[in-house]
Amino acid sequence: MPEKHKIIIDSDTAGDDAAALILAAKSDTVQILGVTVAAGNVSLEQAAKNSMAALELAGSDAPVYLGATAPLSGEEKECFSVYGKDGMGDADIIHPKGKPQTKGAVDFILDTVRDNPGEIEIMALGPVTNIALAIRKDRETMSKVKRIWSMGTAGFGPGNATPVAEFNVYKDAPAYRTMLELGVPVTVIGLDMDDAPTWTYEDKLAEMREGNDIQRFIEAATRKLLEFKKGNGIPAVDLPDAVAMGCLVWPNFVEETAQCYGSCITEPGETYGMVIFYKEGFTYDSMPKIGRCNVSVVSKAKKNEFVDRLNAAFRS
């Protein structure tokens, strides 16, 4: 049996992050060494509670570490939570038994990478402030990260925080730029990987409501999101963080990637938080061929299998 991926999950845990955490906890292809949380969808303390509740429900004892409460600049980019005030549907389902660790998230990341050079993969599901702070504190150690997986950017499609920027990047674009410039392999799973084939529609949500504890938990956690989506004419919920986790934990789920140079816009203005991807081997009219690539962007996956695979994991 292949050796498991040793992963740290960095998250701002709301409903879709919780689904991703449970998917990882149920997978036999990864070992969760710890979960680091940052403020994003919800406050830092709420993100920690949400993470612990999801992990406990999945039978995981992975420790949770508290991280950043604000972006690198200290300037908050206001976005409303489509998951409710607690990030989990305001359904009174968050009652974890455990508590966060006393060690901080940045120190945990650095200590874990030092102890396992070239072996640690980080799955980033929220704003990457914790990762950027770790890079600022000890760049040499962070250069020994095996790979960073990022649910971030709009991929090759539109954004959700703005027409061109995705929420996780928009919340802390300087942090995302810092991560891209680190030089370790980065795999990006953008919003364009989370479209109609990966959405969970109302009929499937109704089935989940009658399912096991995990299925009922996720259905409840996404009720506010469903209300929001229906207001936009879509009777379904999307779980982009779980799609991203699927790209890591499911062999052969990813079918194609594009090698690119990713440039994150950090200057104030309408394009703040946009990540521009220059494709390898393509000569643009106004510039030479791109020579250096810093990201692999997932461009094709077995999206039609996602909902069934996810529910199979929840039932395992």
Number of strands: 11
Number of domains: 1
- What integer value in Å does the Rg equal? 18 Å
Helix fraction bin? 25-40%
Label the CATH architecture: Alpha-Beta Complex
Query: Briefly, what CATH class?
Result: Alpha Beta
Dominant shape: globular
Question: Would you kindly provide a brief summary of this structure?
Answer:
By secondary structure, this protein is an alpha/beta fold.
Describe, in plain words, how this protein is organized in 3D.
The protein is an alpha/beta fold and 316 residues long. The protein has a single domain, classed as Inosine-uridine Nucleoside N-ribohydrolase, Chain A (Alpha-Beta Complex). It has 12 helices and 11 strands. Helix 3 crosses helix 4. The chain is globular. The model has no long low-confidence stretch (mean pLDDT 94).
Summary keywords:
316 residues, two-stranded antiparallel sheet, globular
Task: Give the SSE map.
Blueprint: E1 5-11, H1 15-26, E2 30-37, H2 44-57, E3 64-66, H3 105-115, E4 120-124, H4 129-137, H5 139-142, E5 147-151, H6 167-171, H7 173-180, E6 186-189, E7 200-201, H8 202-209, H9 213-221, H10 223-231, E8 236-237, H11 240-249, E9 254-264, E10 275-279, E11 295-301, H12 306-315
Parallel strand pairs: 1-2, 1-4, 2-3, 4-5, 5-6, 6-11
Antiparallel strand pairs: 7-8, 9-10, 9-11
Helix pairs in contact: 1-2, 1-11, 3-4, 4-7, 8-9
